[in-house]
Amino acid sequence: MKKFDGEVQLKKELQRICNMDLPESELIGEKLNMAYRQIYEKAEREGKAGGKKKMKKNRLSLVKLAAMAAGVMIVICGGIGVANPALAVDIPIIGKIFAYLEEKVSYPGDYSENTIAVGIQDQENSSETQETAENGQGKEYVQSKNGMTVAVTEFSRDNKKLYLALRITNEEGFPEDFIEEASYGQLDFLQCNSSAVVHRDGQADIRYSEGDGNIPLYYIEGEFQDKNTFVGIAMAEFDDLTESVGIDFTFHTFYGLLPSTHDVIGHVAGEEENVIIPEHDRMVYEGPWSFNFALDPDHAGTVEELVVDQKNEDGFGVYKVVKSAYEITAEPIFPDGADKADYIVSVLDADGKPLESHGGTVEEYSTYGRNTDTVTICLMKFETWLEHKGENADKQEANAVFSVRVDLR
């Protein structure tokens, strides 16, 4: 996973908020439109005030606006999105977790058709608490710690991501008032702190952790089957897995958000005004739970890379497009002096409809269920993208600073 700077992290959070699919409500619509207007009008005012010399948004001011938007969403979601594990419908999983959830998560994919059975993994270097168990469908990895049992039933991967099918069992039961905050409001949400070590044949290991500034996994999307059981699919992000031979993956903690909140006061460097937003209290479960996954470098999944290397007279363009088993990304070209954080790449499918982000990750787009034999890459000003999303998406190509159609067949 890339180490994003503050502006790109801001873009990622705003994109996630903008793409959330909430129930129809005049109040919610009004609050969201207010947040969008504040973000857009703030950037518009600063652009006009700065004249020709001030062509970019004020990053620090937009951090405050992001906090305001996030605050709006906390208030809204806190009021409508309470998951109650104790009252959840006990839906039995027929078959495996991938097949059950792969269409529901915000990073959908044909994982069940590209699954790797965990029972074939080499367990010589695993911890003493890890065991291989039969579950009626095959084998799974199981680890227990402090009353929490984590089972990995299967996994899939592409050139940059590891997808884990998980069943997490809590002996004491999960709280009845966990907040449901999964992307798009479709599933429940269990957050985590994780780390990983990626092993490469004949090369140095690559470490991913909070201390290294590149945590591979923050949350898991899934469902509470009952008050003791959560099943989900986790998407762990890495820089490059094409030449990797194995991953040591550790969940350090799991935690969920409660309806109760406390105020968090932050100060933006260079500005006098503090930012105050409500933050949910947490229920935390301590681990660790560690697993090892063997990877075959010759089976990293199909990856198509097409070098486009086109740009317009203003210096904007697209260098290349990469299509993996589950997503599409494009590498833009910028003229000297352009602030990359002011722009965003949007991808339209063969029918001219914008692809959805793959798990809310900025500028990484899901190919699931879409015709991506031919795609249109649109490099857009970020404010323009905000204005031409959703129902106005058909105007993206016409309002892009650069666009190009690419044949990926």
Structure explained in plain terms:
- With about 400 residues, the chain is an alpha+beta fold.
- It is built from 5 helices and 18 strands.
- The strands form 3 sheets. Strands 1, 2, 3, 4, 5, 6, 7, 8, 9, 10 and 11 form an 11-stranded antiparallel β-sheet that branches. Strands 12-13-14-16 form a 4-stranded antiparallel β-sheet, with no helix packed on it. A 3-stranded antiparallel β-sheet has the order 15-17-18.
- A hairpin with a 3-residue loop joins strand 13 (about 315-325) and strand 14 (about 325-335).
- The model is unreliable at about 1-15, about 15-25, about 40-85, about 85-95 and about 120-135 (pLDDT under 50).
Question: How do the strands and helices of this protein lay out in sequence?
Answer:
Layout: H1 6-18, H2 26-50, H3 59-80, H4 97-101, E1 116-117, E2 131-134, E3 139-145, E4 148-157, E5 161-170, E6 188-200, E7 203-208, E8 219-226, E9 229-237, E10 244-267, E11 274-294, E12 304-311, E13 317-323, E14 327-333, E15 343-348, E16 365-366, E17 374-381, H5 382-387, E18 402-407
Antiparallel strand pairs: 1-4, 2-3, 3-4, 4-5, 5-9, 6-7, 6-8, 6-10, 8-9, 10-11, 12-13, 13-14, 14-16, 15-17, 17-18
Q: What radius of gyration results from the CA coordinates?
A: 22 Å
Mean pLDDT: 76
Number of helices: 5
Which runs of at least 5 residues are low in confidence (pLDDT < 50)? 1-13, 15-25, 40-84, 86-95, 120-137
Number of strands: 18
Give the SSE order as H and E letters.
HHHHEEEEEEEEEEEEEEEEEHE
Tell me the helix content. Answer: 10-25%
Inertia-based shape: globular
Summing up helix and strand content along with how strands pair, one would put the structural category as: alpha+beta
Q: DSSP strand (E) fraction? A: 35-45%
How is the biggest beta sheet arranged?
11 strands, antiparallel
How far the N terminus sits from the C terminus, by CA atoms, comes to: 27 Å
